[in-house]
Every structure is written in structure tokens, then in C-alpha cells.
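Researcher: Next entry in the queue.
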Amino acid sequence: MPQKGSLDAVEEILLDENLLAAGYEFFELGTFEVSPDHQLLAYSVDTSGAELYTLFFLNLNTRELYPETIPETYYSFAWGNDCRTVFYTQVDAAHRPFKLFRHQLNSAVETDILVYHEPDDSYYLDIDKTRSEAYLIMSLSSKITSEIHYLEADHPTGKFQMIRPRTVGVEYDVEHHNDVFYIVTNEDAINFKLMSAPVRSPGLEHWKTVIPRRPDVMLLGVSAFVDHLVIYERSAGLPQIRIRKLSTDQEHYMTFPEPTYEVGEGVNPDFNTQTLRFSYTSLVTPASVFDYDLDTQARELKKETPVLGGYDRSQYVSERVQAIAPDGTAVPLSLIYKKGITQNGENPLLLSGYGSYGYSYPDNFSSVRLSLLDRGVVLAIAHIRGGSELGRKWYEDGKFLHKKNTFNDFIACAEYLIQQQWTSAKHLAISGGSAGGLLMGAVVNARPDLFKAVVAQVPFVDVVSTILDTSLPLSAMEWEEWGNPNDKEYYDYMKSYSPYDNVEAKDYPAMLITAGLNDPRVSYWEPAKWTAKLRDLKTDSNVTLLKTNMGAGHAGVSGRYEQLKEVAFEYAFLLGQWGKETK
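Model: Structure for this entry, 583 residues:
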């Protein structure tokens, strides 16, 4: 019989989410961390959608739970190497993780030790562990500033040491390899650079350059293995993976076959390996997992997510095109459509976007999109400023007093698609969620004539009022993304594009607006009051729907089938506006 833990061993279920979720309208798993000796499991659950988790400890041999449970924890968690000491975070009244606690298993939660308290409302606190399992990493970060402390995981009751103190505007992240910390930082490097420092004296004065700053390549991060450094970059709008063999300093880039795609690191818990597991997907390729030999460059497909119904990727086309913004900036657009589609101006088209927080909108596969594609719908993604698709400057040019570039870029993408006869205004629908919902509100206020229909999911639309109210979750942190509305210059600028503040008496497209009652990020009353104002002022007879999920939060419902129903509702709305069959 194969030994437990080997690849040939009998499958073992560590946790059955279906059983845990029974009886709950909403269920989400947060922490899922096996102890270093593989005997214990720490896991946490949220049953409301409010992103507050109760932490449990399970003995994997006896299947018995430890007597203590820890309520109202946040996402981050780490084991000490003694397999008895654990670290977790809790949030303040504004839902900000601000305290780090140390807990000993089989002890009362009331005796837990407060390790660190971050008083600054603009900083998040996070705890993690290096892949080498040598160090615990405590990260303190705002939108634009970082500070990192480290502690030997073999001595979890010790005191965390700081790598370098916070300096406003300087971000850095840390990866451990033997006697070196690799440090990714934006100090004097807008697209980030890679530094190294000795573990025993990692202060700024000991930092040395490993990869210098580059104007056309953004350094996203690094992963260290026993003899390799895996370097994640973004160049010309696409993610890249660069491999450096540490013993020889030889390098190579991995290659990918499609014009637009997404690639990222998979689960790689083992430090002592020369195999990298990575994920790959594109608009036409389902999510796939590969193992890659870092020395021989051989790759092996381990699994491709199956798509039921006889999916044939050769029947679909993806491509990358460019629109030109009013200031002359070229804005990338990703397209996917079924073969046979012609540019005749009559195609229904769904254009999506986000453009905030430096988030690069992924060109990934979604099987639910096939329902639209097979009905002749063209799907497009606008990679607008405010994301990081073209580097950090792309992000900086879409925030603060440059935020309107985000909206202008999206409108330019819509106009380009119409000019190139991919669609027309009477066939063009748009969608976006959260800050992408703000995008929807801003562009529909500016150019309602361009769009047939709008789907705005949990939209952040009452920008000024929300960010002024520091009792709400995240508000103080948002000052480093949108600006501080207590400053008149920022107040006036934000109010000039805030969707709620700029609703006017004019015709609007048909709109579907969603909200979550337990949403800690966009309070349910934002979309509700926006809907009410639209209904009160608009001069058209188009439908304006508000759908509030009464048992979920920002990410919508939990459960695969319930999520599919949610997508089906949105698609039915769009197909109805396009005059398409919904059967």
C-alpha cells in the first residue's frame, strides 16, 4: 500500500466544505493552513459575507476539533515551526486588520498575546511565512507605503525585527533565500527593482541591486527556490516569467503561444525543488496547471479545467487591438468572439473594465461566457489607465487628479469598437463591479448615448460621501487612491466625476445595479441611493433595476450553483436588451 503523503496514496479529504456549509445561506472558507508537521489544520469560515471569520483547529489524525475557537479574525494566518504557536489578525470597527495576536493551542483565547497594534488608519496588517519556512513576515502597508518585520519561525515567541522603517511613498516586499532577503521595491524605481540584503543585517544601508529599474518592464515579484529565482514581470501589457539559476546566474524567459493570456504562480510550497508549478489561461484556453522544469525548460500539463458540452477552442478567436484616448494614448483592448463574426456594426457586444488600484484586468477563460459567445456576442476588455497593464505609470496616470483618464480611456474604447464596426451604440452593453461600477456610473453620466445597457455590480458610486466618512470600512485608506476630500482641490475633482453627484435629467440606458446587504466594502445604500436618484431624474423609459442580495457581501453569493444563477440573471437582462433568445 502506498505510503501516506506519496503521489500514489489514497486521496484524503481534509475538509468537506459542503458539510460545513449545510444550513447556511452564505459560506466561505478563509484560512486553510496545515501545520508544518502535517498533523493539524487551521481553517476559518465566514457565514455572512461580511469578511469576518471564525478560526478553528482540527487534529487531522483524530478528526477532533480543539476546544478553542477564535471569532472575528481576518484573512491572514501563520504557524510557528513548533506547531503549537499560531498568529492571526483581527479588525477594527472600520474593518481594517490592525492587530496581530499570538495564540498557543489548547489555551484560552483570552490569554492570547497582542504582538503588534497598528494605530494608523491607512495601514493594513498582514502575517505570512516564507516558502523556506524559516521566517514569519509581518507586513504593514498602505496604498503607497510598506514596512516589514521578520521573526525566526523556530522561535515564534521572540520579537519581530524591522527590515526598514516606513517612508511615505516607498513600497517593498521580501522573499527569503538562505542567508539573503530579496527585496522588491519602488524606491527610485517607478516600475520596481530587485535588491538583496543579508538576513543578519537587512537594513537599507546593506541593500544591493540585483535587477535595476527599467522604464518599459514592471517587476511584479519574485519567488525563491533552492537554486532558482523566479521573476514575475509585465511587459507590453502581458505577464512574463523569467528564470534565473542562482548557482550559474544563467537566465531564460518562458514562452507562451497566444496573443493575449494570463500566467501566474501556482501552489509551490516546496523550497527544495527545481519544478515550478504555474497556472495558464487565456480568453480561449481554460485554466490550466503546468509543471515546469527550471533547468531543462520542459513543461508538462498536469490538468486543464474541463468544459462540458463539447467545447472546441478552435471555434473562437482572441486578439489584442488598440484604441486611442483623447490625449493620444494607445489603450489596449482584448477581444474574443466566435468564428464567423463579421464587423458589420450589428453585433451585440459586452465591454468590461475596471481601471483602479493598479489591478490589471485578466484575460482569462470563463466557461459561462460561452453562453454569450455562442449567441453571436462579442466580448471585449478595456485595459484602461488606473490598472497596471502597461506598468506603474499606467496606474499613476489613472488615479488622484488623473482619474478622469480612466473614464476617457473606456469611452475611447467604446467609440473605437463602434468605429471599427464591431458593434453600434444600440448593441453595445458595458459591465463593471466595485470600482468598475464607479467606472460604469462615470461613463454613463458622460456619454449615455454610447450604450444600450449597463450592468453595475456592487458599484462604488457615492465617492465623496463615502470617503469622507472614516467610520466606514476602508475609507481612510482610500485617500491614497482617490485623494483626500478634506482637501478642496481633491473634493472638487472627485465631486466632478462621482456618479451619484452627477446624475442629471436626461436619457440613460437600461441599467441593472446590484448590491449586497452584508458588503463591508461598498455599503448597500450606495447602489440603492444611486438607483433612486436615477429613477427620479432620468427622462427615458428604460428599465433601471436594483437587485440586492440579502444574504451575501461584496463578492456575491457563495456556492457554485448560486453563483451561476447570479450570472444567468445578468445575462438574461443583457440578452433581453439585445432582443436575443434566453433559452
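Model: The chain has a mean pLDDT of 95.
Researcher: Noted, moving on.
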